[in-house]
Amino acid sequence: MAQLLNKPVHHPLSDDVQVIHDLKPNDINLDYIGLKILDIKANGVYEESTGDFEVCVVALTGKINVSDGNETFDDLGTRDSVFERIPTDSVYISKNHNIKIEATKDARVILCYSPADEERPTQLIPASENSVEDRGKYSNKRHVHNILPDTHKASEKLLVVEVYTDQGNWSSYPPHKHDQDNLPNESLLEETYYHEMNPSKGFVFQRVFTDDLSLDETMTVENGDVVVVPEGYHPVAVPDGYDGYYLNIMAGPKKVWKFYNQPDHEWIIDRK
Questions:
Q1: Any stretches that span the bilayer, and where are they (predicted)?
Q2: Which distant-in-sequence residues (6+ apart) come within 8 Å of 141 by Cβ?
């Protein structure tokens, strides 16, 4: 089933590090995706082992230094709010590494996980290398920062993307899905959405549903919430007066993003 995971009361690991979400694949009934969201105060340090997972460390806001035990990347992060709408820096780190994250300025960090079969080189993904694009038209417009698209060679399974949806627009619309291993027509990718709103008191709606409606959940999503999409279509509606942001993590057996539009609504793409 789809899940709405509300932002919990901050769980402190220390005076300087607080956990906002900590979701392993088993916690959210997925096979390919986990995520962790941390708030780290300036001079705070967080460490963990990647174990059997590949990880993409995203400097969501603030400034951080990131080490994999061998290499260190300093002064990562480009913004104080995601709604500055500029790309940020990330680091890809494979399995069997030790991660150390040090904040040089108050930071929010997202760690995106997927089980890995092989070790790969650590790779900096600077903001300047994020491809940026605008998708959709009419009231279905969104602005996209591609951090780890399916064309990026660093990761084995992980895809990571940021999406901005302006007030009064729909996103992931017309409804599309990617839950069948049926290439070249459709790929199987699980997905999670980490949401923020501007102003932060806002909310958006997200529906997750399958063709046979055996899964049909419509959720009111607030700032800092996570939505889990194991299968099905998953459109997002953003009300007037509030702008929406989400960071998507996708992963599956093949690192290919090939979606399938719900036929009933595909007509809106080509209307005049």
A1: none
A2: 134, 135, 165, 166, 169
